[in-house]
């Protein structure tokens, strides 16, 4: 039993700290605009270039 507790304590030391909500980068994506733009070009949103995607999410 002692070996299991040692392994458990060791795994706790290696576990990263929790991320607080205030630390998460808040982004705003105009998803509706992105989808409409991709549809007007007859491509999927994944096929758009990074520059085109950046128009709808300035924080990228």
Please supply descriptive tags for the structure shown above.
single chain; 60 residues
Q: Label the overall shape.
A: elongated
Q: What is the percentage of strand-forming residues?
A: under 5%
Uncertain stretches of 5 or more adjacent residues: none
SSE string, helices as H and strands as E: HHH
Helix content: 40-55%
Give an overview of the whole structure.
With 60 residues, this protein is mainly alpha-helical.
Structure described in brief:
By secondary structure, this protein is an all-alpha fold.
SSE map:
Elements: H1 2-14, H2 31-40, H3 50-54
């Amino acid at each position: 039993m002692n070996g299991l507790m040692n392994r458990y304590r060791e795994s706790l030391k290696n576990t990263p700290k929790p991320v607080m909500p205030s630390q998460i980068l808040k982004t705003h994506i105009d998803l509706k605009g992105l989808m409409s733009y991709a549809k007007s070009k007859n491509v999927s949103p994944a096929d758009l270039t990074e520059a085109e995607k950046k128009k709808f999410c300035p924080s990228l």
